[in-house]
Fold this protein.
Amino acid sequence: MTGSSVQSPVWHPFTQHALEPAMKRIIRTDGAWLFDEAGSAILDAISSWWVITHGHRHPRIMEAIRNACDAYDQIIFAEFTHEPAEELARGLLAIAPAGLAHVFYSDSGSTCVEVALKMALGFFHNSGAPRSRIVVMEHSYHGDTVGTMSAGARGVFNAAYESLLFSVDRLPFPEPGQEQNTLDAFEALCRSGQVAALLIEPLVLGAGGMRMYPASVLAELKRIAGQHHTLLIADEVMTGWGRTGTLFACNQGDVMPDILCTSKGLTGGALPLAATLCSPEIFDAHLSTDRSRTFFHSSSYTANPIACAAGLANLAVWKDEPVLDRIQSLQTLHQQRLKRFAEDPRFSNVRQAGTIAALDLNVPASGYLSNVGPKLRAFFRSRNLLIRPLGNVIYLMTPYCIDEAGLDCAYNGIDEAADIFAGTR
Ligand SMILES: *Cc1c(COP(=O)(O)O)cnc(C)c1O
């Protein structure tokens, strides 16, 4: 297909325009649903790339956005501050794992992880004992900027940029029964005294295929990090805001990260906003009358007041509505529905973490570029289901407001898809 046959000038993310049909135009969203021009309702079973937590256009969040528009647009965030950012920072620290004391705003998951990496290296640099290594887990994903690509799994996604990526040390994923290998590998790396931080997605590696591991491993990693004065950076960009069954995934192992990254669900998914929370030690290492110790990071839209107001409304929803009960019910609904696939020869690794359900479709060739992913996606779309498998990994990560009928549509679609695609190439 040549460029001239492309109808729209818009270049879409993670999209091969030569292979994809025209983009479907959405004219409205509501709850767990997207509505297109033709009047079809499409079930948003992946929460619009994992950002929508409560549901699309939660009334309280939308109202807060409308109200904020009466007072604010963007305001430079150096020299100045504003109430939405101040109040949101205090609110975040009040509910985040203990030990975090400062909030640095940015505008996406990738940027809040970049900020975290810079904080970690800056901490050791300013402490006079620089450390240069970052440890990550294999199959991890931390974003698509050059820094976060460096930390994430390498593959076809970043092959073209390989020459720009910095090297990191990778821990084997803690497969069931192999957890000790992961811990031993981390301990061995830490002994060099050069590891600034372990950057990790707690409990669930999202884009790497919804790979799940127990909280006990996370807690052990934190313990080892502590022994070697290595910082733990929890990338809760996807796992935060109830996805794994608790507000943050770190809550499950009672893990206190030194740095916590949050974005996607921070505004309930309504507006782009991110925050990097850090311990007092990290802030203090940058606090000095010597200007060279400043934390040199800014983005134009730091702490956008309207986005912060949406974040505040999200906190209010968490405080005033039974969000955790909703999550608990959704968790149970998934459990019941996953049972029917547990012994199903068409699937393996049927698994769940809180509101995330995943299963691997048994096909001869797996991996992201195996053709099965796009074929499944097209099939789901023909059933008005927005489900985007990661290779042969089919997962559901719906908004919390989804009802039983909606969830049944998704599971019936998966069942039907397996009849067509399992065991085929
Ligand atoms: C999505 C994601 C990111 C990147 O967030 P963007 O807002 O897309 O930049 C980083 N880390 C994790 C764990 C994610 O799931």
Remarks:
- The pocket of pyridoxal-5'-phosphate is lined by residues 108-110, 113, 141-143, 201, 206-207, 235, 237-238, 263 (CB under 6 Å).
